[in-house]
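Issue 218. Parser rejects a valid record. Input:
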Amino acid sequence: MARSEELFEQGKNLFLRGQYARAEQLLATAAELTPTSVGCQFMLGASRMNSDDVAGALYPLALCVYFEPDHASARFALGVALRHLGQPEQANVHIAYAAYLGNPQAPAMLTQLGLAHCTDCGGPVTPNAAGCDTCAATPRSISSPRRRTWSWAHLRADDFRSRLSLPGEQVAQIARGHLTRYDLEGDPRNIDDALTYLELAAAAAPDAERPLRLTELGSAYRRRFACHGLPADLDHAIDCHEQALDRAGADADERVMILANLGVAYGARYEFGAVAADLERAIQFLERAMATPTQDPDQRLAVMANAGQFYRHRFQAGNDPADLDRSIELQIPVVDGTPPDHPRYAGRMANLTVAYTSRYEKDGRPADLDRALDLADRAVAATPGDSPALPIRLFNRGGARLHRYLAHRESSELDRAISDLRQALDATSDGNPLVAAVLAQLAKARLVPGGNSRAPDRRTLEAWGARLESASGASPSERALAGRNLGTLAHAGGQYDLAARILDAAIELMPAVPLRGTSWTDRERRFGEHRGLVSQAFAAHCALGDPLRAVQQAELGRGMQLATVLDAHDDLTDLDRELPQMARAFRQVRKELAGSSATQSVLWDRYGDLVARIREHPGFTRFLMTPRVEELRRAAAGGTVVVVNCGRNRADAILIRPEGDPQHVPLPGLSSSDVEAQAESMVGSAHTGRGDGTMADRLAWLWDTVVQPVREAFPSHDTPHRVWWLPIGLLGLFPLHAAGHPDRPGALDAFVSSYTPTLRILTHAHRRHSAAARRQLTVALSSTSGLPGLPGALAEALDLHRRHPDEPPLLNQDATTGRVAAALSTATWAHFACHALADYSAPSNGGLCLSDGMFTIPEISRLALPDAQLAYLSACSTGYRNLEHVDESLNLASAFQLAGFRHVIASLWPLNDRFGAVASRTFYVKLSGTADDAPRALHWTALELRRQYPDRPDLWASLIHSGP
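Output the parser choked on:
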């Protein structure tokens, strides 16, 4: 110590006399003797800076700031060094903080840079800025790292960095120290410091070390994402890992690590954005990592554990049981090979618990549930009582116990499940994303048969609602799911006002779920998770006697994907035009909110502030708010919109007319259990084509419980009333327009019916102009590879073409996707007689079967056909609504509406070939000549076919009209 102090004093004196080279020699020796001496490290760095050895100055200055963060002179010198080394963003942070600490040189440099420092926190700000991002906890986006991490050895010769070298391992070690400090203290500024040093270590690394440096940098970017939730950080992480993989030799020791890190980074991006392609890449890279030899058995187990998790994610997305089997297959040896003293022992058992539970939910194998519960017990027992992981493990066990209760109905098992979930909730802090998941499961446990006796009182429900409001760490999707369950529980307990408040808050989260930039199937999966939310909110408002609010909330929370394609949902079309900067900012924060990270609370604050600022501008005062009553009335121009709903505890209809307030019609004879049973029977009888009276029974039930009470709310009239049915939830599967008893007047006699998925889409159709000229496109395929022949299709098409020979028909092999799409661009009327396929798990995979392949729902919806008037889809199930996505109304009929057709004729279930030809011929005979007569022409067609086939409602009840 004495020797070090002596050398330090000598070096310091030489430095003050300007003899920097000699001072550096002495100070370097002193620093080796006492590496934690702040004075030694600062003087050493300053000596090297004054000797123009910027690279050599970096390490001692960084050490000095690490040991003493408030060393003003070291901060300033470090900032200057970082600017020289190509790190201006973090350099500015250090220079600004030096000015805040009182360094006399820093303010002048900040002025030269066009910056100032925040007087509250010391962060860099632009002069006259309205606020400080650091004080607002707004993380800065980091620009692409590719240029900064490009090897200095490959820079142009006139770039002085090409001649520099850095002590890479030492610099990387400082970065690791900052990451450790972040883990202990939670200050995110440590992550930015770590990234800066890792970027420099990677840039200066020799070729042999570069892959290892790059993958370490990528992992740090993933840590930053976990902290801030900025999607660009995950992009940077993947970029770094991919560069590392490109540069690593086939036999490099670090190859397994790089492949695994790359797989995990893609997996993290999938968990954030739910883009299926990222999940596929995650699994591919982890499979490659498992296939690469390694001498480290624990590393191999870690790779297998991660792969098992992502296979389970893929099962959740695609419902392929092989993925779940693979997940369990990988995780069993991981659990068996992990010793009890391993830090991940309990976590690995917990992960396998979830996989076994998922397989039990899929297949109902009792052995899987037994195994899940055994693992859950062991995981909880192996987790310390003060561990932050205990709540998630209690949550997993509570879910498994709930399954056991549902299987055996032993009340003690339900008590244990609820106890686990209550403990998990009590042990989870506000803001933690787990709060939403626990509340969702806890409310579900109270709603199962036998759970009513354990229903919480109002005070408990209000407390849970407050916990959900504070669950800012959860994604919008997770919070909406919890709100649905909790609101349903409040409604079941008769707390209608509380139920409405919770359910409304859940629906209002839906605009925060981003849609653009993800595939249709990704969007379907996301919105399918919330089935029943709108139905419960609608029921709660009806219970409160507020039909207007019921309809407004239904409009806000349904048809999200359709409306986004139409650009009617989130008002962003007008925002893009009038306030483009705010539109970009809104899309960005909405994208960031899709993930679940520790900074969701900050993101929610940004989201709320941005929406409030947008609403301050004229024309946007109701941005993302529920539609006004006058907007709802516009949809009913020329008739009445009938919204029908069946919630868990009540059923209602609401009538919307062009004038007056919405009219509430209770439906006391309709129950959710009957709707579920009848929906299954309805779909089954229609899709099997049975003419055995089953469909007639269903139509009679539909009349008694839904349509007759609605009919009684209309005044007596000599002619049928014009109505648009807007069914919510499973009611969207039923042919409301055809309800009735045999040989008695029914819906066909009372109403001229159409359907609409949402009021906004109907309003949009009303606004489109009627084209004067009819340009008819006719498409027919009598044979399609791999599918039954359709002899009636060709006759149907030729009959139509004889009467309207506007354009040559596209028949059989001529009916390719390209030719059909091109012909649609000039046609105003279109008729399709061909096969159509409906994908019941992912509706957007369905489409029209043409000669060269599928003309899919997304492809059709993207067409822009401003003059399109009428599309007649004489094909199977073109208006069918998928059970899981019933409120999104994703089908061929809605796709043609989005493409621009004002009127669409479609079928709710598979069409009989011969009957389809008869129906279309009758329709065109009844049509007076304009597309706007389509609803009445179809109405008279249904009446005529009912007369001809009175005992086959499965035939004449299938055709429906959508449009004004």
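Fixed in the parser; the record now loads. The longest strand covers residues 640-646.
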